[in-house]
Amino acid sequence: MDSSKVMILSDFDRTLAPEENGFIIEDYVVKEINSYSEFNLFFVVTGRERKNVSGVKRKSVFELSNGLVPTGWILENGSMILYRGEHIMVSKQWLQDMDEISRRFSQEGIDHALGETIMFADNTLDKRELLEKIVKDVSQGRGKVEWNTDDAMVMASNVDKGRGIRDLVDMMQFKGIKVGIGDAQNDIPLFQNVDVKVAMGNALPEIKKMADIVMKGGPGEGVLEVLDMIREGRLLDIVKQHYI
Fold first, then answer.
1. Which top-level group of life is the source organism from (predicted)?
2. What is the pLDDT of residues 61-104, one digit of tens each?
3. pTM value > 0.85
4. Which of 13, 50, 56, 99 has the most CB atoms at less than 10 Å from its CB?
């Protein structure tokens, strides 16, 4: 397979970066992906923010990526693309909604953090009903909540990882094969917008069920297995079944 005609779109948390390592990518994984990205397309597609604006301090994706230099980034769950410039996909009204939602969360004692276009409320699954009600009441349909295991991401209703991928593909006028790699609920829109779906060995059961391939390896290791499959042409049979 000509790897120059393949676009890899990989999630970050628990796909590239192991939770037990504080979501920092291992050095050897960074080295392999940087080498691959010199001549091939590798994009990180993540809910993580470029920078923490306010609230509970979270490390940004760049603080955790350990020198990773992919072709580009789709950040904040599809709200922002960094590829040959900066592209923001949310309205000014949504940014105002975020401020009011943040105020209401604080009133209710819901710890949270703000990125530039997205909000995070980690470990809040037990407060799901209240959290989703606040978002609905304030945004009047302009916002939504997506869950990543027990963590809530509050974002504009018209964005997700799939939207980010579609906009990127249009921007690049890419006509090749899209390979998506993920592990959790917010990767479902990612999977719905690629040609070959790859689940990590540590992925949730519903993600493994959707996948065309389930890797043996977990975070980082599984992604490197995918790179080997592409280099060695072993991905071709999967592509024939799902793309050609």
1. Archaea
2. 999 999 999 999 999 999 999 999 999 999 999 999 999 999 99
3. yes
4. 13
